[in-house]
Amino acid sequence: MKKILHLIESKNFMKVSKHLLLKLALLFFLFPSFSAAQEEKPKLTGSVVKGIVEQFVSMHYSQKPLDDEVSTKIFELFLNRLDPAHYYFLQDDVAEFRKFETRVDDMLRRGNANLALDIFERFKKRLSERLAMMEEFVGEDFDFSRDANWILERADQPYPETTAEARVIWRTKIKFDLLTLKLGDTSLKEGKERLMKRVRGLWKDFSQYENDDVVSMYLNSMAAAYDPHSSYLAAQDLKNFDISIKLSLEGIGAVLRWEDGYTVVNSIVPGGAAARNGKLKPDDRIIAVAQGDKAFESVIDMRLNNVVQLIRGKRGTKVGLQVLRKTKKGFDTLKIVIMRDKIVLKDGEAQSSIFEQPAAVESKSKQEMLRIGVIKLRSFYVDFNDRRKNPGNYKSSSRDVKVLLKKFVDENVDGVILDLRNNGGGGLDEAINMAGLFIGHNPVVIVRQSGGRRVTVHRSRERAVYTGPLVIMLNRYSASASEILAGAMHDYQRAFLVGDTTTFGKGTVQNIFQLPEGYGALKVTIAQFYRVSGWSTQNRGVETSFVLPSLNNAREIGESTLDNALPWRSIDPVSYRVSGNLKKVLPQLKKLSAERIANSDFFQKIDEDVQEYLAKIKPLKYTSILKMQEDDTRRKTQRDQELAFATKKETEEKSATEESPESKKEIQRDDYMNESMAILADYINLQQKTE
Fold it and tell me: Which of 14, 54, 268, 409 has the smallest count of CB within 10 Å of its CB?
């Protein structure tokens, strides 16, 4: 028998209260016996569904009842999981089922999932009809000299009113898909074959769905109605989840989402193959995938899990991605080849360098130079197995940073920069202990469990190692544990926060509760983080003191952009004493920084890019057949030039790496780090003036 409770330590390090374990144990009585489950595939019967629903609602942090409001959300989420771009259902279909949208809660509490099964059967009927349409349309000779507009982001578009209207949408869709493949150097004949293969595969996939598969999707819709991080993990989904949290994951290292029929790159994992390749970008739409040197396979409208399976593969093998990318002049189609690799712990180890930075004041004889220690941390990592076996000596981010800070102190650095850009978090304990390296044995974070039943104040066990001037660099991808550390440093006035307007805004804790063999697991949000000031990091993130121009500030990034994200809240602060008075000098430092930014060619260019993005790229929701062809002709020459330059640069970088194995460990200064160093130099100068 598997353990009732399976905790994912890398996410939270939380202990579950006894009442929660008792509730989960009671859930087991609703399941068939283990012996029966082993003899045949377990079924999501009415009693099982009822038990899952009851326990999920009781365990969720919000303690929100399953009511009519949640019912409506579940209904919409389930429809969107089947037909997010409104290609298949007709308006009459949706109207027929919408009569039950406020009764979903009542039915689920009874374990009744018949509505989901009825909706799914109607979806399969419409899918079959669209397949027949496609078989008819691909036989046509499309005239690409005739223009037509195509809306890529169709989530807000109405469902087609009639079959005739659906035919118009699908004919245009097929024409656009064929053109997209054609511009990616695929012949029309091959493109038609790929599209047919994809839609037939979609039909085959859904036609093989069993009732339990539909019910699993329904339960997931229920979980997503509470918050974006909770879910029901069926047995196969649980296996995929276990793979995704391993420190050694074979693949390209990209977080993907499904949007309007497209697989979209949400973010790039630091240290992964895609990050090292440097060509795949957030918001890229993956439209086709190729294995090694084989032909590309269209993945438009393909389920996300299936696309992930195509992209995932053994280390050392190649995967080709054909992507559709928004640019300032329209949509571009390009191919990217990535060598699959492992995302290993070593790739994300803390790095350090000491740089010279001109002091803020120049003497008559020479420019005084400051020595600034920089630590780059990609994640709050820890070797759990090693920690259990050898608690006195194990690999962890806080232990590594402690060594680096001691080295900085021994070498008499004038200031320290901790670079947490793109750091998506990790172990809560690591963030707490790392905070102690700067503030000692003081409260770091408050964790409030479901319904406020228990509030725990976590203190660092570490002594302060470095007490000098400190800057923390952040961006919109700094999340979870990064936000805990940054929030604590801000509240204690221990460090200046520099970067994007805010961090990501994920301030919740999830636990995995294993169900009996074959039934999967529940992933439930059970707690929320709060800063010592009582402010949550949830939804709002942590605001920076110095906002630097960045395209991230204009893009929709963060917890607040996710559906049904839990709201920002505050609680009573804990007793703590600030360790500095940074607010006093902040206005003067901001003025000096603003003057540098205004005179910086780099930041002026970033501001121009931001304005161009807001004016031309972000509003771009549709394109035209003729414009795509015109833009493609113009860009081919440009892409060839860029490719030649990139190949040369890649060769040079490879040669440099081969000549100097240690070069991979060096931190590279960029304009954002230069400005952070300048802020630190200004602060050191002001400190010296007041001494």
Answer: 409
